[in-house]
Amino acid sequence: MFTIDNFIRPHLKSLKPYSSARDEFEGEASVFLDANENNLGSLAGGVDYNRYPDPYQKTIKEKLAKLKGVKPEQIFIGNGSDEAIDLLVRLVCEPGQDEVLLLPPTYGMYEVSANIHNVGIQRVPLDERFQPVFQKIAEKQTERTKILFLCSPNNPTGNVLEHATVENLIQTFNGLVVVDEAYIDFTDQPSWSTRLDEFPNLVVLQTLSKAWGMAGLRLGMAFASPEIIGYLNKIKPPYNINVVTQGLVSDALDKTAQLQDMLQVIMDERTRLLQAFEALPLMEKVYPSDANFVLVQVPNANELYSFLLERGVVVRNRSNQPGCANCLRITVGTPAENDNLLEALHSIAATQKV
Hints:
Layout: H1 10-13, H2 21-24, H3 58-68, E1 75-78, H4 81-92, E2 99-102, H5 109-116, E3 120-123, H6 134-140, E4 145-151, H7 163-172, E5 176-180, E6 202-207, E7 220-223, H8 226-235, H9 243-252, H10 256-278, E8 285-286, E9 293-297, H11 301-310, E10 316-317, E11 327-331, H12 335-351
Parallel strand pairs: 2-3, 2-4, 4-5, 5-6
Antiparallel strand pairs: 1-7, 6-7, 8-9, 9-11, 10-11
Helix pairs in contact: 4-5
Pfam families: Aminotran_1_2
GO molecular function, one term: pyridoxal phosphate binding
InterPro entries: Aminotrans_II_pyridoxalP_BS (IPR001917), Aminotransferase_I/II_large (IPR004839), HisP_aminotrans (IPR005861), PyrdxlP-dep_Trfase (IPR015424), PyrdxlP-dep_Trfase_major (IPR015421), PyrdxlP-dep_Trfase_small (IPR015422)
C-alpha cells in the first residue's frame, strides 16, 4: 500500500510552514493590525488590493469542489499547473539522488522542473500510436524513481492515453503518478480526479488556461489525497494566488453555461480544421485530436513554419520532439483566424514550395 509519508523528503516532514496571524485567527474582526499592510488603501485603484489574499483560496476551492466532484481538501491551487509540477518534484525528489520518469513526446516543464532541482530523468518514449508501453515503463523504474508524469490528452500529440494502461500504471507504480489533464475539457473522457479515493499515489493536474480562457491569470489545480495536498500547502509560498486572480476566477467559475458555448465553438472549429488538413496535399499525416490543437506532419516543417510566419501566422514547430519529425502543432483559433490559416496553407500549396 502506497503511503505518501514514505516518499516525502525527510527534512520536509518536520518543516514548519510560514503562518500569518490570520491563519491562526478564527472569528470576526474589524481592525487588522497584524500584517503590516497599508490600511489607508491601494494606489492600484482598489481598497481590497492593500490586503493580502486568502492563502488557501477557500472560495475558489468550494466552487471547484462542486464543479469537479471532489472535496475542498483534495484541491491545491497554484500559479499555473507549473507551480504544482515544481512543488511535486521538490516534495519527493532528493537532488542528485532521485529521478522522474517521462514519456516523450510530452510537455516540456516536467523536464525543466527536474533539471532545476538537479533531479535525474528517465525516458520511455511513447509507441508509434503515442501510447505508453507498460512493460518498458515497469522495467525502467528503480527505487530512486519517485514520479511518473503522464499527459492525457498528451501535448504535443493531442491524444488521450489508453485508460487501461494508465490504470495499470497507477496501480503498480511505486511512487507518485501525475496525470496532467490540461486539455481534459476538450474530450468526452472522464477525468482521473473522479478516482482519487481509489489511488493514494494519484495526482491529477488541470488548468484554467485552456478551455476557460484564463491563461493570463495563471491558475492551475492539483487534485490528490488530503495528505498530499497538505504537504503541497506546507511548502508553497504563503500567498501564491493574488487577490485579482482569485476574484476573477471565482466569478468565472459561475459561468459554466458560457464555458460550454465556447467549448462547442472550439470543437466545431477543430473538426473543420481536421477535415481541411486531410484535404491538403501538403499534409502527410493529420493526427486525431482530443485537445484544442492539431498535430500535423508535413514534408518540411521548418520551411512551412517559416512560410506561415511570413504570412503572419504563428504555429509551433515540434520537429525536435521524439516521434514528431517534421510535425507542426497548430492551435484551434477563432473562425476568422482559422480562415487566415487555411488561406495561407492553400496559397503555400499552390506555389508548390513546401
